[in-house]
Amino acid sequence: MSDGFVTAFAPASIGNLGVGFDMLGLALAGVGDQVSVRKTDGSEIRILEVRGLDGEVHPFLSTTADQNTASIAAKSLWDAHGDGSGLEMIVKKGIPLQSGMGSSAASAVAAVVAVNGLLDEQLPVDDLLEHALAGERFASGGLHADNVAPSLIGGLVLCPPVLLPRTIRLPVPDGISSVLVHPELQVNTADSRRGLARGYSMDQWLTQQGYLAGFIAACHANDVELLAECLKDETIEPQRAPSVPCFAATKEAAMRAGALGCSLSGSGPSIFALCRDSRAANIATAMEQACRKMGYECQSWTSPLGTPGAHIK
Asked: Is 272 a member of any domain?
């Protein structure tokens, strides 16, 4: 885009990755948000327009600067490192809203990457995280980076809230892809979080921590069998599954087709599976067919686990 705009793209993401609630995230290929930013006279930060998937003006997302994750994140970075001038922004949404694909996170990430491109001395990518999280916090009501971090830096990211702003990009086993199916449903992340149980038994805590530790070990050891054994969520998934009526059938279809594991992406309604590359196409088809058989139209994306993060276009 010309006229002084810097444009950045940020990919969608799988939050939690089933086994790591609020602690694991994975970038997705082929789908994401785009934000264009330029400097203006004065000191105001303005969103000129927000366009939706159809290219038309978005009917739901606000252009008010303190009500949009992109402008909130941009303001956080610009207030800290900008030259005091104003900003104008254009947001193009490529991710469905309330989809469990990190829609709010991608807008925030694309905004800070674009704004960083306007700075005389650009910041390292890792230093952008706290500013993107300012936007995500507005949307989700909490401080967690499982969508923001993979969208920003790419790949598979470990990002426990207790370690933020530090994140750890994990190695990924060879020959593994993600398949994500998005049914035409919406689940509000903030509402979903409020509905979660506040207490868990010692057995539940130990079981889920064991799966997470095993999953991380599997990534480092390139151990696909261990990864499959540990790609399970026995605490959050059972609570959220009822809000996605097609989940059980879609998960069963994925596992029957040879997936290593399958769970909700974030709070849903999107459903992801990890699988060997050779089985990805068949698993995507099986998941789509199961979803449609339950009466829900859907679309899917297949991604390598090392998908790149946000970048200037």
From this structure: yes
